[in-house]
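Extended Data, panel c. Modelled sequence:
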Amino acid sequence: MKILDDRVVRQAKRFGLDVLVYAPHFTPLSEIRERAAAYTDDDLLVVPARELFTGSWRNRRHVLALGLDGPIPDFTTLDGAMAELRVQGAVVLVPHPEFLTVSLDEAAIRRYRDLVDAVEVYNPKHWARHNRRAREIARDLDRPTFGSSYAHRHATVGEVWTEFEARIDTEADLLAAFREAAPRRVRHRDGLVHEARRRAEFAHLGYENSLKKFDRVALPGMEATHPGQPVYENRFDDVAVY
């Protein structure tokens, strides 16, 4: 989930979701945790996470991390990010594998296979061939799977979800389910409305990768998750790409 507000929560509850994973782009872990806690209640658990942007803008690879002990910046090498995730014992998920230019490919997933807890096999932004390829990768590497709405838009909330057989009441429950490869099913809606929402989510990439990317690359300033920010205490200088 890239967005989180009252509307997201209402829609999640309307669709019967019990848990949301909140991982907005370029947002410090402390802020993600604070917002996740603010929207968690007796009916909905919001789990904080980071979708790490490893590599440079021209060669970026996304990694989704849950259960972090401390902050990890964007714009580090993939090896550097994975090494820190190993140290922290984080849950490591692969979102949208081999999708466009922002994803881990099969070779990278194979290299870190022992660290990867699950591979995403259904994403609303994907076309059918992308989902097929993701399933092939998960099968060939014998990795558990997950699906997500990956919602950048309110309308996409609840379009895709992962259904665990085990009851998930706490963040620790969710982390354990991934770490222990608990039985699960990837579910998604069907029909014309679902297809329209998928296409709209895909179209949103144009905004994400044009105007917003231009702002970050061409305009002055430093992202809040840049390795040079004080919160990282120069710990990632040796693996920073900028």
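The first strand starts at residue 19 and ends at 22. This feature is highlighted in the accompanying rendering.
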